[in-house]
Every structure is written in structure tokens, then in C-alpha cells.
Amino acid sequence: MDTTDDDDLLDLAFMALSDPVRRRLISRLSRGPATVNELAEPFEISKQAVSKHIQVLEQAQLVTRSRDAQRRPVHLNPARLEALTAWIDQYRLVREAQFRGLDAVLHSNAAHGGSSQKDRK
Amino acid sequence: MDTTDDDDLLDLAFMALSDPVRRRLISRLSRGPATVNELAEPFEISKQAVSKHIQVLEQAQLVTRSRDAQRRPVHLNPARLEALTAWIDQYRLVREAQFRGLDAVLHSNAAHGGSSQKDRK
DNA sequence: TAACTAATCAACCTATTGGTTTATCAACCC
DNA sequence: GGGTTGATAAACCAATAGGTTGATTAGTTA
User: Fold this and answer.
1) Given CB atoms, is A51 within the 8 Å cutoff of chain B?
2) Structural domains present in chain A
3) Beta strands, E only, chain B
4) Is the pLDDT of residue B17 over 50?
5) In the prediction, which pLDDT does B120 show?
6) Does B31 touch chain A (CB under 8 A)?
7) Could you say which DSSP state residue A31 is in?
């Protein structure tokens, strides 16, 4: 059931953050856990729609859920957010290093690796 | 077309990175500029499709284009990538700080602005 | 038990996305 | 000029994402 390897997870995460509503949810959750009802309150859209958004975030493991009676609080998962910044920085830093001709930085960052780069040439 | 304020730009950027093909393009471009034909070569899809993807990245200002005769090389724009990591870190760091009960970090970061590279556990 | 609350499921609708193919534009090279 | 190359535009299509409403599952409380 956990057929989500590291690469799929990156896919899901970036996909999840592509929606403005979901980014607002992340923003809200950075201030602490909240239930679906609480999260839905500031939005125009229905509670069900928000629930769906949460599921998308959950599948990307950007959030987790706990249990408190019939409530199911949503928690932010900073570790997964870090994986995103790691991916972005991987390319940003390489390019910036090249701009300055510092390939020392390039090598010290290549170790960080671990994504999907299968290009030839 | 230039009505893209900072927030729209963030929208466009995350949206752009939500596609696996576009992320592979970014990956390729981190090793240096390339033309559409060069970029399209490793992909199954048509050149036109790649061209469209480039336009999406361009609108998000994640890449820029120069001119060389009839070629139009695509260049990565590290500055915009940095804006993404800044956004993510904004929430990730706040949450991580709360985990550890360090709201000192929280306040020093609440000011926000231009977070470069400084976080390293 | 019944009633209430939190959240999800299910069916459905519409706009957008990512892809195709064909045709066109623009700059180079005999 | 005519031909070739690099890149885009236009029209179209299937799949999906994001939204809706209505019904349903759990848990809580009277």
C-alpha cells in the first residue's frame, strides 16, 4: 500500500503545493494543528472541498492526522517540506555556483543528491 | 501580461514545478542553458509539447530566454527558485521552531524578507 | 434510544492541462 | 531566390482537477 517511493512523493508534494488553497492551508497549519472545520472556516468553498485538499496534502505526506474523539486534527510535517527545499536548492545552488565559477560548492552539494536525474549526454 | 505581482508569481512557480516533465527540464537547465530541441531530445513527447512547457516555466520566470540567431536558448533563473525555497522555509522553520519551543527563532524569522542559505541543521 | 457533530463518500459537472497534428513564422545557408 | 532548421501558433482531444450537493459513517451526548 505504501507504493510511494521517494520520487513519487516529490511528485505528489509539488503537485500538492501547486494549488493556492492548499498553500493557504499549509500557512495556517504552520501556526499549529487544526481540524477540517477550523481549516475550512476562512474559505468560500465547502467543507468537503477542503477535506479533499487535506487528503491531497496527506497523500503527499506534507501533513499527518491524529485522532481526538470524532475530530481528526491535521498537523504539518516539516520534514517533508524540507525535502522540497532540498530538491529546489539542489539545482538552484548548482546554477548559482556556476555563475560564480565555484564548482567547489557544486561538488559538496552533489553528495546531497538522491532525486530523479536520468539524463544522458 | 506584466500584471504578475509577487503572489501570482508564486502561484505560477509552484504550478510550474508540479509537472514532472518541467522539473526534469529544470534539472537539465541547472547544468547550463539549452535550446528547445536539445531539451526535447530525451523526452518521448513532441517538441511542441516541450515548447509549451518552457513557456509555462518562462511565465513563472523560473527560466529566461536569450537570442542566438534562430535559436532561443533557455536559461535557469536561480533567483526565482530561491523565492520558492524562501516560501517553504517560512512555514517549515516556524513549525520546527514550535516543535522545540524556540520562539526566539520564530521571531527572528517572522520579519521575513530574503532568506538566503542559512538553515542547516 | 435519539439527536447532534465531525468528517468522509459518492455521483456529478465544468474548466483546465497536457498532449497531439498541421500549418506558419523567422533566420540562416547555399 | 529556394531550401533547411529552430521554434511557435492554432485547432483539437482525452483525462483530470477542483468544485458542487446529497447521503453516509463514526463518535459524543442527552
Assistant:
1) no
2) 6-77 (1.10.10.10), 80-110 (no CATH)
3) 63-65, 74-76
4) yes
5) 33
6) yes
7) T
